[in-house]
Amino acid sequence: MSLGGSIKFVFLLLSFLLLSNFGKSQELVVNYYNQSCPQAEEIIKQQVFSLYQKHGNSAISWIRNLFHDCMVKSCDASLLLEMKNEEGVVISEMKSPRSFGIRNLKYVNKIKQVLENECPNTVSCADIMALAARDAIVLLGGLEMEMKTGRRDSKESYGEMVEEFIPNHNDSLSLVLSRFQDIGIDAEATVALLGAHSMGRVHCVNLVNRLYPTVDPTLDPNHALYLKKRCPNPNPDPKAVQYARNDLESPLVVDNNYYRNVLDHKALLLVDQQLGSSPITLPYVQQMASNNTYFLAQFARALLLLSENNPLTDDQGEIRKDCRRINK
Ligand code: HEM
Ligand SMILES: *[C@@H]1O[C@H](CO)[C@@H](O)[C@H](O)[C@H]1NC(C)=O
Ligand SMILES: *[C@@H]1O[C@H](CO)[C@@H](O)[C@H](O)[C@H]1NC(C)=O
Ligand SMILES: *[C@@H]1O[C@H](CO)[C@@H](O)[C@H](O)[C@H]1NC(C)=O
């Protein structure tokens, strides 16, 4: 072996050892609460179900909320923190413009209370968010998933950094793909995750830039007329509850209608529509539009990737008692 060769070899060996050690201290496992709180997953599933029966859109919210939690640094329930700085001003990721429209966060604490009664100080808020999203997906027509647990809760809020991680509604496709790539989510999985936009609503503030002063040429003209009816004001009051549904046919089902809408130029956000005009993403859009089984499998794969982004484990973070506050 040449000198260069052996240096390369030693380097590879070292990186391997380092990586495998890091891997060990950062592992989530299936059934993490098996011993410490055997009923945890069942309790969460029941709670998600009863909330869904009362407020159907809570199921949709679990999915968006997990995205906003996991994408920003780590799946660590930092999204839920309402901290005060020294001047008494509330710092929260929810204050970022990217968090606009996030709803139903309060239900995490409802589930947390039931778990605290059953097994105090044991189940993290971060795991509740992840498992709730998993269970919600089944209620909305998605696949069952085996999801690892053992995430711990952050002691920090990343309120100042949200925009570095979560793209805007009108960002370029290359920016969107690179943000997801940064956390190990490939283009196919990114296309699948955006299928979450087959559910729920978009407020007019996130749409009007495609309608006024001129209609975005990538938007179907008839659909634009419909959207203008939903959003008649080019400068909507952000507080007004004016919105359009992502998927008129099945707003409460996770399905591949979203991709058919993209191909028909009826996607609502610019980031959605762009998936249909790039050679990187268009083949996935076409395949997902024509095969719901394939879409659902990719969606499940992608959601698991997202749910495992950079978790806090072992002695990192803490198990919060109240999901809105770090422990005293
Ligand atoms: C490029 C990435 C993304 C951008 C720019 C984005 C942006 C948005 C925007 C602007 C809304 C509308 C908010 C409103 O007006 O109320 C929305 C809604 C939603 N997003 Fe995303 N999103 C992205 C990715 C994702 C991902 C990865 C998921 C989940 C896997 C997701 C799940 C949802 C859901 C479920 C809604 C509907 C929420 C509701 O009806 O309450 N989004 N998104
Ligand atoms: C839970 O733990 C017990 C005892 O360690 C083990 O026998 C069982 O297989 C575990 N169950 C699961 C689903 O991991
Ligand atoms: C994206 O939309 C926002 C309003 O939501 C606007 O202020 C901004 O200029 C837009 N950016 C681009 C690149 O069009
Ligand atoms: C749809 O996708 C599934 C999963 O990838 C695959 O097994 C099946 O053959 C596909 N069906 C068609 C009609 O292409």
UniProtKB/TrEMBL annotation:
Annotated Gene3D superfamilies: 1.10.520.10, Peroxidase, domain 2
Positions of the Plant heme peroxidase family profile domain: 27-327
Pfam families from the UniProt entry: peroxidase (PF00141)
Top-level class of the enzyme under EC nomenclature: oxidoreductase
Intracellular or extracellular location(s): Secreted
Cofactor note: Binds 1 heme b (iron(II)-protoporphyrin IX) group per subunit. Binds 2 calcium ions per subunit.
Matches recorded under InterPro entries: Haem_peroxidase, Haem_peroxidase_sf, Peroxidase_pln, Secretory_peroxidase
Catalytic activity of the protein: 2 a phenolic donor + H2O2 = 2 a phenolic radical donor + 2 H2O
Top-rank lineage group of the source organism: Eukaryota
Residues in the signal sequence: 1-25
Cofactor(s) recorded in Swiss-Prot or TrEMBL: heme b; Ca(2+)
EC number: 1.11.1.7
Keyword terms: Calcium, Disulfide bond, Heme, Hydrogen peroxide, Iron, Metal-binding, Oxidoreductase, Peroxidase, Secreted, Signal
Calcium found in the keyword field: yes
Family: Belongs to the peroxidase family. Classical plant (class III) peroxidase subfamily.
PANTHER family: PEROXIDASE, PTHR31517
Role this protein plays: Removal of H(2)O(2), oxidation of toxic reductants, biosynthesis and degradation of lignin, suberization, auxin catabolism, response to environmental stresses such as wounding, pathogen attack and oxidative stress.
Protein name, as recorded: Peroxidase
Gene, per the UniProt record: LOC103491198
